[in-house]
Amino acid sequence: MLARAPQQTIINFHGIGEPARTLEPGEAPFWLGAEQFGQVLDQIAAHPDRARFAITFDDSNISDLAIAVPELAKRGMTACFFVLTGRIGSPGSLDRSHIREMAAAGMGIGSHGIDHRDLSRLGGRDLRAELAASRAILEDVVQAKVETFSIPFGRYNAGVLAAIRRAGYGAAYTSDGGTARDSDFLRPRRSLRCDMDDAEFSAILSGQSSAAKRLRRLIGMSLKRLA
Ligand SMILES: [Zn+2]
């Protein structure tokens, strides 16, 4: 029997440092300070079971290349970066040469759609465009297959997942928390926020947080049943 891929905690980042574009409503807490970011990477690098962690970035901010890639490289780490193709080359966002440079540095490149839309609210044609057109653009940029998709705002339903599969992606990254295997289509992640305290960061990195969350969910479910 083949050994199964190990369960991984996938840590998701957004912007690092000072934003170089106007933020969307509610986006600010998802930007981490550069120092805070370095400390989280240090904790992952020092973890006794470092292979248990994967790292991703959403939104293709310029800080991906300016801050994240050098900090990852310094620690011998790689990550997957999910690009909004509608922002390629706009102020504060990665351009085509940045994305190629990151791919050449061994970083994974995936799609985050075109215009950062809530896919669960889109009709079939718009949904297909977000998935297929963004993939085609990225494959043209990196001259390689793009097989991973990160779902904007973590909002999805069965129709969205089916459309992601039909568009040819092999994996869909959500923001549901928990762990995933490399072989899973659905890959829940933990998004870090700057307003989390050290205890919360440590809990996520130790894996306690997902267990605690599962427990709270179970308790919530049985309370609902009793109601
Ligand atoms: Zn996003």
From TrEMBL:
Domain NodB homology: 51-227
Main localization category: secreted
Keyword Signal tagged: yes
Cellular component aspect of the GO annotation: extracellular region
Keyword Signal on entry: yes
Keyword terms of this UniProt record: Signal
Family annotation (InterPro entries): Glyco_hydro/deAcase_b/a-brl (IPR011330), NODB_dom (IPR002509), Polysacch_Deacetylase (IPR051398)
Single GO MF annotation: hydrolase activity, acting on carbon-nitrogen (but not peptide) bonds
Any one of the GO BP annotations: carbohydrate metabolic process
Superkingdom of the source species: Bacteria
Subcellular localization(s) per the UniProt record: Secreted
Function text: Is involved in generating a small heat-stable compound (Nod), an acylated oligomer of N-acetylglucosamine, that stimulates mitosis in various plant protoplasts.
Family membership noted in the UniProt record: Belongs to the polysaccharide deacetylase family.
Protein name: Chitooligosaccharide deacetylase
